[in-house]
Amino acid sequence: MEITWRRIVAQDFPLLGIWLQQPHVKRWWNHETTAEAVARDFGPAARGEEPSEDLLAFLDGRPVGLVQRSRLHDYPDYLAELAAIIPVPDGAMTIDYLIGDPLQTGQGVGTAMIQFAIARTWADHPAAPCVLVPVAAANRPSWRALERAGLRRVGVGDLEPDNPVDDRTHYLYRVDRPGGSV
């Protein structure tokens, strides 16, 4: 299973819109799926106007998912929310992710994609001491994929859910740079 990625471009927006409409994605991402909404929300990162990286993930050369990666210090309000639950080291990164094709879920693709994202983070961001990932406590497939990818649960706390049907309980997962301090 070979995972690769590249930054999203405007030509990827129709595919993102289709993925965001998939029930297994829509349940957790709760995102508007019109062409205008996708362009509005993903356009700034695609054009380099947003500090986050929106990355189209490929499995054996075929688009399979999305990884969003960012430095927490680029988002001070979000950083403050997480820091109210657990200590957040300077330079910490975070990721979010989705598998677009429902036929690829439950096949280890999410775990492989997370592992690839973590490995690339160490290479692309040499100052990052760790990656912290909050996930809705009710999203068992997501937090199980994090665990299978080697992240460990380091906290539980209340964060604003992506989908208003969920309560605020989130698990926080962490993986440290190999050879770094905890």
Question: Can you put this structure into words, describing what you see?
Answer:
The protein is globular. The longest helix has 16 residues, at 109-124. Helix 1 crosses helix 3. Helices cover 34% and strands 28% of the residues. The chain has one domain (3-176): Aminopeptidase. With 182 residues, it is an alpha+beta fold. The chain is built from six helices and seven strands; from the N terminus they run E-H-H-H-E-E-H-E-H-E-H-E-E. The strands form two sheets. Strands 1-2-3-4 form a four-stranded antiparallel sheet. Strands 5-7-6 form a three-stranded antiparallel sheet, with helices on one face. The two termini are 30 Å apart. InterPro entries: Acyl_CoA_acyltransferase (IPR016181), GNAT_dom (IPR000182).
What is the helix fraction of residues, given as a range?
Answer: 25-40%
Mean pLDDT: 94
Q: How many β strands by DSSP?
A: 7
Strand content: 25-35%
Write the layout of secondary structure elements.
Layout: E1 3-7, H1 13-21, H2 23-29, H3 35-46, E2 53-59, E3 62-71, H4 76-83, E4 93-99, H5 109-124, E5 130-136, H6 140-148, E6 152-158, E7 169-176
Highlighted features:
three-stranded antiparallel sheet, single chain, 182 residues, transferase, 6 helices
Summarize the structure.
34% of the residues lie in helices and 28% in strands.
